[in-house]
What does this fold into?
Amino acid sequence: MEPGTPSEPEPTPSDGSRDWSELPLDALVLVFARLGPVEILMGSGLVCHSWLQAAKEPSLWASLDMSNHRAIEEMPAGVLREMARVAVDRSKGRLEAFSGKYFVTDELLKHISARSSSASLRGLSLVSCNEVTNKGFTELVTHAPRLEDLSLELCPNVGGRHVFESAGRACPRLRRFSLRRECFRFSLNYSRRTAEALGIAAAMPGLRSLTLVSCNINNDELAAVVEGCPRLETLCLRDCYKVIADGSLRAKCAGIRTLTLPDRV
It folds into this structure.
């Protein structure tokens, strides 16, 4: 080609479309970051070699939300557990947050604990996990000293004063705790939930936010929580039918910025 002669443009596919497999790795990682772990594991990361390489970037797997995707309700529990294991492995010990639903078991929590750095996990949310027990839950949080956010929703086999006290002592940085129980009228576990709140009062002094839904807690126990958690900024109680929001209790909670108590007085 003579000097000054313009170069010919690169050939493009006959249909005018772009070859997405040739995108730079960092660009593919940005695209996958907008998809989320479920979409990637369901096939987006398997299109070609370059996409698979990008899909294994550990930063994509630091936060695993496997509870808020419509596909979760339609897929077999065993498949979801295997997907979760793959996702945890791809994080390369950098998992910071995990959210899972009914498919989570003690064995999966054990896998998370084994494959994650003890300093990495900062958020844990479990929803309707009937196969998670006190043993599995306690083993995980014991190895997560930097945990800051904890949410347990409708997990009937996790709880008890000693369990929450152990969790609080193992996770001194815990700032937000949300606990939702089954509606007590239909729960066989309700009588076993006595004094759970005292475990919170005894070992979670750094809490900034506490939400209790359908919990077996009374005024004296709530007063103990307020006293034991002096940094509380948000306290929300819903459907806690033993709590009576009288003047004495409201005075006890006067220093809490955002307060939601049952309507009963």
About this structure: Residues 1-16 have pLDDT under 50 and may be disordered. The CA atoms of residues 25 and 81 lie 28 Å apart.
